[in-house]
Amino acid sequence: MPLHIHIGTALYHLGVRVAAPFLPKARQWINGRKGLWERLDKKANALTGCLWMHCASVGEFEQGRPFLEAIRAKQPDLPILITFFSPSGFEAVKNTPLATHVEYLPPDSAANAERFLCSVRPSMAIFVRYEFWYDHLMTLEKAQVPSFLLSAIFRPSQPFFQWYGGAHKAMLQTFERIFVQEQASLELLRGIGIKNVVVSGDTRFDRVAEIAAINAVLPLAEAYRKAEFRPVIVAGSTWPADDALLLEALEQQTNKARVIVAPHELSTGSLAKIATSYPIPVAVWSELESELERQRPAGRSTNDAPDDDPLNARTLLVDRMGLLSRLYKYGDITYVGGGFGSGIHSLLEAAAWGKPVIFGPHHGSFAEAKGLIEVGAGFEVKNAKELVAVLQHLLNDPKALETASKAASEYVQARTGATQRALTGIQDVLRGTTSSPTRTPA
Known about the structure:
By secondary structure, this protein is an alpha/beta fold. It has two domains: about 5-210 and about 415-430, Rossmann fold; about 220-415, 3-Layer(aba) Sandwich (Rossmann fold). It has helices at about 5-20, 25-30, 35-40, 45, 60-75, 85-95, 110-120, 135-140, 165-170, 185-190, 205-215, 220-225, 240-250, 270-275, 285-295, 325, 350, 365-375, 385-395, 400-415, 420-430, and strands at about 50-55, 80-85, 100-105, 125-130, 145-150, 175-180, 195-200, 230-240, 260-265, 280-285, 315, 335, 355-360, 380. Mean pLDDT is about 90; it is low at about 295-305 and about 435-440.
């Protein structure tokens, strides 16, 4: 491993260990990897010849999931190993029926990478979006295990395109094929001599379109939606900065829209703060789940509910994981958090339902944000004044809301198909039938 990458990796691991006594996520990162080799050894026979997919966290898994489902449909007996870098990804997906085994990625070192391959013996490896681990990739290449990069997106500021990026470029050369989301990434890579690149699109479009097509009902959200005839804003994956913005805007807004809020952090402190700050009355999802069947007479319409019925609450606080991609269905407008921090969360989950999407300004590395803005379905806001203006525009003008909603749905539908393109490309490479350029020699 080149010295600067080795030092960076070592410092990261040291930082995690130092932070572990104080930060739960760091502690999970350390504790989750305890017993890793014993677990892999027990699964070694079942995993022999597996497809190994590595994801950073939950978002990357959702990108890779359509590909896994397509593979599983074609080869139901193929063993599948999924690894994660982050504890949140592992915890969310550890019981998925798509995998033979779900595990943490061993820390990146030559010894760990060699031990991992000896234990797992994969037939191919898929890395999703932007996971680059030098020793794991080099060891795969040395063992002649074909590896692929799925739904990748590149930016000029990344190390691959800098004067010091030789080792990073070498990682790109280990892939048999790199499937990128858009033409700009292909051109960046070809500019540094990487030719094993195909524009396949983003598999997330297939995933969110599938969720919308299944159209699974969330009875509690549907009951809340029908309880009053006021517009509903679904605010998903919100952070404190998003909550502060929404609260200020809701105070200024004239039509008193109702809010379904699903915060990114579900800690007791975060939930308590939201429950005491959002417009009252506030109903809590978990409490309603246990109370509604007991309190609501069978067959009674929610439209006949008394004023103190919890379904008439101004705010519905969702304190459950795994619901957000379906919750967006019940909003007139959606707000996606993260745009005042390190970056927005999934806009496509909301757009797939044909919902206009509002988000903060930190979205430069998300192509879908730019795309939704261009078609009139996405709206960037920098402050509460701008948020109020967007809400008033969409909620006071039915035609504007209809136009933006249609644009959101069409934007997603027009970009499906990446999964099949990548699957066909990988199968062609493995069969040796592709006429595309091979990877650039190191």
